[in-house]
Amino acid sequence: MQKTKKRILSFVIALIIIAILVFTVLFVFFGIPDLGRKENSARRWIKANTDIEIPENSKMLYRYENKDVFFPVPGRLSGYYVFKFDSEPSEWLEQTSFSKEPDKEFESDFDVPDWIIEELSEDYIADFEKPYYWLDAPELIYFVYMPDKLILIVYAHPW
User: Which of 7-16, 61-70, 134-143 shows the lowest per-residue confidence on average (mean pLDDT)?
Assistant: First the structure.
């Protein structure tokens, strides 16, 4: 009876050690699952810096934040966020005062550096040759809504 208990205890300890090793290997190679934290963080950051809330009927498709800045301005890192809508957010665009008229000055201000463009899929780049809605928010944060793709691009200029 004593030997059986020792064998069972040894087996349980071995299983626990194996489970810990498997968890550690998975953590090292795959990291902690996001579970939506990055999207929620991006939405909160946009809301805090522009007072504009991205509608819940959108899903973040892409997020880029440059954290490799030598002397970043506190709370100001360059960022590029792409949200996809299920349907046209007409009411939201109107409430937030997006402009539908093309604006050459806005297009030139929406100057995304090449090192961000190189990482983007062509689907996530603003095409000013097609119809677009735009909003120039405070703190050098630019919004572009592309109705043909139902995507919203939020670009935070780093300076």
Answer: 61-70
The whole-number pLDDT of residue 58 equals 94
Burial (CB count within 10 angstroms: exposed 0-12, middle 13-18, buried 19+), residue 52: middle
Provide the 8-state DSSP code for 87: S
When computed from its CA atoms, the radius of gyration of the chain, rounded to whole angstroms, is 23
Between residues 109 and 145, which one has the greater pLDDT?
Answer: 145
101 CB-contact burial (10 Å; exposed 0-12 / middle 13-18 / buried 19+): exposed
Q: Residues 25-76: pLDDT tens digits?
A: 776 666 655 555 678 888 998 898 889 999 999 999 998 866 554 544 545 5
The secondary structure of 21-68 as a DSSP string is: HHHHHHHHHH-S--TTHHHHHHHHHHHHHHS-PPPTTEEEEEEEE---
Distances (CA, A) of 40 to 13, 14, 77, 136, 155: 39, 39, 17, 22, 17
